[in-house]
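Two entries, shown back to back:
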Amino acid sequence: MSNIHSACMLVAALALSASLPIEAQDSHSHTQQEKQGQQQDQKHEHGQMHKHEHMHKHGHKHQKEGTKTATPAATPATNTQKWSADADLRKGMADVHAALDDLRHHEMGHMPANMAAERAGKIEDAVAYIIANCKLTPDADAALHKIILPLQSAAQRLKKDPADMAAIAAMRDAVANYPRQFDDPLWSAAASE
């Protein structure tokens, strides 16, 4: 098993644990440091892990606490450079794109709640597929996880409460950087419309 695949599997496990109810997370045996990290993570919006903790748990390089950079560590070196999206990532994100397009009908009141919950489930499935088939470099993987973790969290919210229209807006916000950071023709075309 490659190091990249192992890192992706670890990220998938952490993404799943971040989405579990707090009671389920606390039922596992963790060290005190991990519990403190989880408590800190819960304080952040949309269930996202604190950047330092996320990077630390995955063994990726990170800066010392308190230092700042002009650009996030996971973005390409230039504004025009994009990460390459492989076939599995493009397939998963195409499924996300289709479900988000369908959810426009729900926002306009033309889709019943059960269908909206189904579309949220399709987004969760697409995120799981992307994580399971991840072959990205560590930097591209880190950039992608800043997109898919909030996406997954918002999809779970909508699935639980289809009346939560803010969850749909949160999903769109989560994927807004995807066409800017990844070379994916479907999303690039949609972003230019």
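entry 2 starts here
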Amino acid sequence: HPVVEILDTVSLSPSLDRWVCSLSSNDDFSVKDARTNIDDMFLPSYNDSTRWVNGVPIKINIFAWRARRDCLPTRLNLIRRGVTLETASCPICLAWEEDASHVFFRCPLAQAVLRRICRWWEVIWQPWTSFSEWLAWFSDIRLASKVKSLLEGVFMVAWWAIWGFRNRSIFEISPPNRSVIFDDIVVFSGDLLKKEDDDLFEEERGWL
């Protein structure tokens, strides 16, 4: 009988019965191991190295790092973690489910902002759909290393501004003014990155 055959493979020992957690190396349950296992199931892993831009505030560098790893509380991520929401739609365009790729690349607002940044820096814009596509494009750009680092900092500031606009769209009573997003990015980027290299800032781009 199949059941008997299965039981024959079981080896019993003369010890007390106990619960065993397969997530842990020592068979004991821990909240840390459970949390790690849940994150491994729901959060994507990335092989690209951490990117850090000098002159950009730590909080924006960390924000960009979390955004690239899809660790932000987008509506789709919240629903996947068991949070009950009325909708998973993007609060800005209301047309598609909100994940990180949509917020920062596919949403019409994000595309408009990133297109203007490319025009500002005189580089060719592409309709990226994810951070990996953007990184492949960015890696192929031929600019002096210092200038390229500054440009990456501007993109980080832009993603930060887009996320801030998204949050205000959800939590503020009056809808935020999208027409000033790009101007705010220019001013904020200029104030930060000009401190990094004033001569390069003026000669290469003449931003302000």
